[in-house]
Design a protein that fits this description.
CATH architecture of the largest domain: 3-Layer(aba) Sandwich
CATH topology of the largest domain: Aspartate Aminotransferase, domain 2
Strand order of the largest sheet: 6-14-13-12-9-7-8
Distance between the termini: 33 Å
Structural class: alpha/beta
Helix content: 25-40%
Shape: globular
CATH superfamily of the largest domain: Type I PLP-dependent aspartate aminotransferase-like (Major domain)
Number of domains: 2
Number of strands: 19
Length: about 425
C-alpha cells in the first residue's frame, strides 16, 4: 500500500516495518494524529467518534484537560518520571487519594501492589501470590474468560486462538462454566461443586478462582449479582481465594468504581489496570487483603512499576471523578440508554441479543459474520466500535464515561444506521 506525502509517494511504513501481529489498525484503516474527549482525528483532520475508549483504558476520554494540566505541571517541574518502587511524592499522593476516596468509602481494606504497568502483570502477580499463600498450584477460571497474553494469564484465558499462540501447554488451570453458560438449564455451580466434593473427580485442589464480573473480550457476558455471591461463598467453603479481574471493567466502567460492588462481595485479590492511570498512561495495581500480603521484598518486581506520571493523572482522576457519585449515576443512566437502543434493534431485526451493563454494552448476532460487517459500516460512517466474543460475533460499545449526551446520541444514531445497512 502507498500513501501520498507532499509531492512524493512513499511506501506505507506500517506495512513495511511493523509486525504482522498488528490488528486494530487493520480494523480501522486510517492514520490518526490527534485525540480529544470522545473523538479521534485522522491526519487529514477527519473526526471519528470513539466508542472504543482504548479498550477501556480511556474512561475519562482522550487528553482529558483536567488530567493533562496536572501532568504538564508535574513534567515542567521535573517531577520524578521513573522510580521503580521508590517512595515518591506522586506515589504518596496517589495512595492517599485511592485510600480515602475509593477504598474507605466502600469499606474495603487492601494493600496495594504495583506489579508492572499492564493488566497481565497484575494477573500474573495475583496468580503467583495465590499459589504462594495456599501452597497449591491449580487455578479455576471460566469459559470465555480473558486475562492477558503472558503465559500465566493465558492459562486462565478461554480464547483458543490466543491460547494457541503460547506454543507450549498451558497447565495448572481448569475452566468452569461461566454464569448462564447452559442457558439456565442447570443450577449454579452444580458441576463445579460436585468436582470439588468428589475425591475421584481428578480436580486438583484449587489455590484460587479468577473471574471477570463482566467478560469484555469474551463477548460482553455479564454475571448476575447472585451468581457472584454464590461463587464467593463457594470459595469460602472450599478455602479457595477469590480473584476478581477488574482490569477492563473497573474504574467505573459498569457504574460503581469496582464492577463487583453491586454484588456486595469483597474479593481476596483484585486486579486493576487500563483506566486506573486516568490518562491512558501504563499503570496497574494488584489489591491484596492485608493478611494475604506474604510477599518477600523483591519477590515480584518490574522495571516500570513506578510510573510516576501515571500516579499524577490517576490521583487527579480520583479527585475529579470519585469524590462523589455523579459519574457513577451518569454511567448507569447512559448505559441504560444504550441498552434501550440495542434492545430496539434486537426487536426490529431479530437473530441477536442485547448484552452488558453500565457503559460496557454489546449486541451479539446469531450470524457470526454480522458483527464485523457492522463494525466496518460504523467506521465508514466515522464511528469506532470493535467486536468481541469467541467468534467475534458481538459488537462492543464502550465509549468514554465522560461522553456528552449529545455525542452519545450521535453515536447511537450512527450505530443504528450501521446495523440497518447490514441487516435491512
Amino acid at each position: 500500500m502507498f500513501v501520498r506525502a507532499g509531492r512524493r509517494i512513499v511506501k506505507d511504513i506500517f506495512a513495511a516495518l511493523e509486525s504482522e501481529v498488528r490488528s486494530y489498525c487493520r480494523t480501522w484503516p486510517t492514520v490518526f494524529d490527534r485525540a480529544s474527549g470522545s473523538y479521534l482525528y485522522s491526519e487529514d483532520g477527519t473526526p471519528y467518534l470513539d466508542f472504543f475508549a482504548g479498550a477501556g483504558a480511556l474512561n475519562y476520554g482522550h487528553n482529558n484537560p483536567l488530567l493533562k494540566r496536572k501532568l504538564l505541571e508535574y513534567l515542567e517541574r521535573d517531577g520524578v518520571t521513573h522510580g521503580l518502587d521508590q517512595a515518591t511524592v506522586a506515589k504518596r499522593e496517589f495512595l492517599n487519594a485511592f485510600n480515602e476516596k475509593v477504598l474507605k468509602p466502600r469499606g474495603l481494606n487492601y494493600k496495594v501492589q504495583f506489579p508492572g504497568p499492564t493488566g497481565t502483570n497484575s494477573v500474573e502477580a495475583a496468580l503467583k501470590l495465590a499459589r504462594k499463600i495456599t501452597g497449591r498450584e491449580s487455578i479455576i477460571s471460566f469459559t470465555n474468560a480473558f486475562h492477558g497474553m503472558t503465559l500465566g494469564s493465558l492459562s486462565v484465558t478461554g480464547n483458543s486462538m490466543k491460547r494457541g499462540g503460547a506454543g507450549i501447554p498451558l497447565v495448572h488451570a481448569t475452566p468452569m462454566p461461566y454464569d448462564n453458560y447452559f442457558d439456565g438449564q442447570y443450577p449454579d455451580f452444580l458441576y463445579f461443586e460436585r468436582l470439588l466434593e468428589d475425591s475421584g473427580s481428578g480436580l486438583n485442589e484449587p489455590a484460587a478462582v479468577i473471574v471477570e464480573t463482566l467478560q469484555g473480550e469474551g463477548g460482553i457476558n455479564s454475571s448476575r449479582p447472585e451468581w457472584l455471591r454464590g461463587l464467593a461463598e463457594l470459595c469460602q467453603r472450599h478455602n479457595m481465594l477469590l480473584i476478581v479481574d477488574d482490569v477492563q471493567m473497573g474504574c467505573g466502567r459498569t457504574g460503581p468504581f469496582f464492577s463487583f460492588e453491586d454484588a456486595g462481595i469483597q474479593p481476596d485479590i483484585v486486579c486493576l489496570s487500563k483506566s486506573i492511570g486516568g490518562y491512558g498512561l501504563p499503570m496497574a495495581l494488584t489489591l491484596i487483603k492485608p493478611e494475604l500480603d506474604v510477599w518477600e521484598p523483591g519477590e515480584h518486581n518490574g522495571t516500570f512499576r513506578g510510573n510516576n506520571p501515571a500516579f499524577v493523572t490517576a490521583t487527579e482522576a480520583i479527585n475529579q471523578y470519585w469524590s462523589d457519585d455523579k459519574l457513577e449515576k451518569s454511567t448507569r443512566a447512559k448505559g441504560e440508554r444504550i441498552g434501550q437502543v440495542l434492545q430496539e434493534l434486537v426487536d426490529t431485526y431479530g437473530g441477536a441479543i442485547a448484552k452488558g451493563r453500565g457503559l460496557a454494552r454489546g449486541i451479539g448476532f446469531d450470524d457470526t459474520t454480522v458483527a464485523g460487517k457492522v463494525s466496518k459500516a460504523a467506521f465508514d460512517r466515522k464511528l469506532i466500535v470493535e467486536t468481541s466474543g469467541p467468534d467475534s460475533e458481538v459488537v462492543k460499545i464502550m465509549p468514554p464515561l465522560t461522553i456528552s449526551d449529545e455525542d452519545l446520541e450521535k453515536g447511537l444514531d450512527i450505530f443504528r444506521d450501521s446495523v440497518r445497512s447490514v441487516l435491512a
